Amino acid sequence: MHRERPESQGAALNYSLDRLEATREQQVLLASERPGLMPIGWTHPDLRRGRRIHPVLAALTALLLCACSDAGTGPPTVQPPTDNAAAFREVFSVPEDACKSCHPVHYEDWSISMHAYSFVDPVMFRLNEIGQERSGNRLDQFCVSCHSPIASRLGETPPGFNPAGLSRLARQGVSCDVCHKVKSWRKGHGIDEFWMNDFQIGTISDPSPNGVHQSIYDPAFARSDVCSGCHDIVTPNGVRVERTSTEWENSVYPRQGIFCQTCHMPRYKGRAAPSAPVRDSLHSHVMAGVDVPLTDFPGRERMLAAVEKQLQISLSMTVDAPASLVDGDQLRLRVVLFNHNTGHSIPSGSTFERQMWLQVLVIDPQRNDTVFASGLTDPNGDLLNSDSEYVKEGTLPLDSNLALFNGIPLRDGVHTPFFWEAHEVKFRTVPALEERNSIYRIPAGSLTSLTEVRLEVRLFFRAFPPHFLRKIDLAELVDRLPIFLMEEEIKNISIGG
Are residues 327 and 427 part of one domain? Predict the structure, then answer.
């Protein structure tokens, strides 16, 4: 089954499913339009007696991404207005915390996730503002269409919109309904269509009945395709600047049945709703990746811990170095990063903002002097490359040995800090099941008169470089930017004879 829309088709709303007086035969017809989409017969007493539930009640417990369809049934009850914004406001009118009473665990997970943070993120708002200014508003809904698809469809986010003036519905970002009502999408181009009724789609094949909304089983929600609309990004220039979904598709993992949800929405045993049966196939909705909130967003500490755990199992680091050296020999080191455990490249996503780098130190343990160093930062927190103000001024030397893994957006062959303007991206990442080697040579002259050195090798990651946040006038967020230690190895090397 494949429901990704052809690239030639534009976004469209489909109201054909919103029938005021749906019948069971019509539900079967709807399911036949989507192979694998299982209609569940309605069982609420009011429905069996031919009564209709109020549309606000019908939307009350919108479920969260992949595992929360443990809820009941009923025919579609919303008769949408002809105006698109009005239709979305009616169908998606229930606030996300209304889901909490029936799905407290899923809601609590989602509420600290980057999906919940996506449209209160000051970095996103600032980049969208810069993009509109630099493009003469031609960027339009490029950012918003994934960060808050409902806000875009409500018409609340024209170029120059004020984030402080957004409705609560718009601020929900990637809410329960965004994922559980998605109908069609195009990889790299966002969501095209939503189900404009009281459907909630998920992966529980035998949901428990209730009278609030229809629960529809769709096995596609357990696979990576459903994430591909926004986890590849194609710019208005036609450049695929983010390619996480493509990287996964090109790996061995699809053939092994390993999907995005396997790692980012791990299974656990529990109840999707308080009155639902215990199941061993529920999914976490924290959806940890590598990003963390840079504001006082709820659950920040929990997300920091989840991201750290994710990063520390993502790849392996091997340090190839001699146990001893003869006097007069240079010290040659090889550091191997092997992406053995991640279904896409590392880093991935917005690689032009990511930084994963090696820090290599050779230290004289007797005097605690540093003999060799690479991967250090300047007083601003920036790596010692061409982006460092201290390097530009000549105050500190360029780190010519720096092993930095990221993506570089290029416009006419020149680096641009604004990825949507890029004509191409130079990816310096570690693809799935591949390795990257970094070689270091410490000259013999640096080791003269030493009998031992201590080698310290660390792999670090952060979501943004400080200079980038300063460039977009968000310097106040630099101190909120965590650096994660992914790997570390320390060994002593003797010198003599």
Answer: yes
Say whether both 199 and 335 belong to one domain.
Answer: no
Mean pLDDT of the chain: 85
Query: For residue range 92-121, what is the model confidence (pLDDT) as tens digits?
Result: 887 777 889 899 999 999 999 999 999 999
The answer to whether residues 419 and 491 belong to one domain is: yes
Does 13 fall in a domain? Answer: no
Least confident of 54-63, 142-151, 169-178, 420-429: 54-63
**Is the pLDDT reported for residue 80 higher than 50?**
no
Q: Is residue 143 assigned to a domain?
A: no
Q: Which range of residues forms the domain containing residue 258?
A: 24-118+174-283
Evaluate if pTM is beyond 0.70.
yes
Tell whether 382 and 451 lie within a shared domain. yes
Question: Domain count of the chain?
Answer: 2
**Torsion-angle region of 159 (φ positive above 0: left; ψ -120 to 50: alpha; else: beta):** beta
Is position 328 within any domain? yes
